Amino acid sequence: METTITWEVKVKNTPLLIKKCSHCESDRFYCSDKFRMNAQKKNIDVWLIYRCVKCDNTCNLTLLSRSKPDLIDKTLFHSFSMNDKDTAWKYAFSTEMERKNNLRLDYGSVEYEVIPNTSLEDLLNLSNEVIKIHIKCEFEFDLKLSSLIKRCFSLSANQVKRVFEDGIITISGNKPPQKHKVKDGDMILIQREELSKSINRSIHDIR
After folding, report:
1. Residue 205 has pLDDT above 90, yes or no
2. CA–CA separation, 14 vs 7, rounded Å?
3. Dist CA 132 CA 189 (whole Å)
4. Distance CA 170, CA 163 (A)
5. CA 77, CA 111: separation in Å to the nearest integer?
6. 59: closest CA among 10, 96, 18, 95?
7. Cα dihedral value 57, 61, 64, 65, nearest 10
8. 112-115 and 58-67 as β-strands: parallel, antiparallel, unpaired?
9. Across-strand partners of 29?
10. How far is residue 118 from each of residues 107, 111, 137, 193, 194, measured CA to CA in Å?
11. Taking 80 as the threshold, does the pLDDT of residue 131 lie above it?
């Protein structure tokens, strides 16, 4: 028998932008959640505004360049005009924007929480042999599966490595779990009884 649990990975902030500030010694900028729009003749330019974490100097990242207004989705145009936060976050996590502006995002600066916070004890107390964990993750930020498992179950790096190598925790699609980056829709498969045995062995080994 098996049961399915849903984990929602919710980010608390957007990734910092890695860029040397021209006004101070800082090399990180934060997303202001605001857009800048400029109309020249019949063309529209749109930027996402970033600010230095130390001196608040601005840096504008190009989203649209010399675009015809009638070719821009009306809802998107309104979102730009109203400084819609959800739209700003969508672009702030965009690898396309990162490539387009030839810059790098500091995904390590992203803080997150997992809802619900299922503990290892809660999981091991289930009666099902196979536990499936369905991942909901609106934004991708290079979160390693190993880091997620380590955090949620309070395991050591060696314990996570062991359960991966022993096939106790796997990811659907036969993807190597050791190098997998968490994505929306991922399905984690856990052999509950084998996980319990592995944890008990590691505790015994430490003693």
Report:
1. no
2. 20
3. 5
4. 9
5. 29
6. 18
7. 80
8. unpaired
9. 17, 52
10. 24, 18, 16, 17, 18
11. yes
Q: Do residues 170 and 189 lie in contact, with contact meaning Cβ atoms separated by under 8 Å?
A: yes
* 35-62 per-position pLDDT tens digit: 999 987 788 999 999 999 999 999 999 9
- Residue 68 one-letter amino acid: K
The predicted structure's pLDDT at residue 83: 97
How far, in Å, CA of 171 to CA of 188, rounded?
5
Give 200: exposed, middle or buried? Use CB within 10 Å, 0-12, 13-18, 19+: exposed
Tell me how far apart the alpha carbons of residues 167 and 81 are, in angstroms, rounded to a whole number. Answer: 50
Global confidence as pTM: 0.86
Q: What is the rounded CA–CA span in Å between residue 30 and residue 18?
A: 9
Domain range summary for the chain, segments of one domain joined by +: 2-12+111-206, 20-102
Dist. CA 157–CA 161, nearest whole Å: 6
Peptide bond into 177 cis (omega under 30): no
pLDDT of residue 207: 41
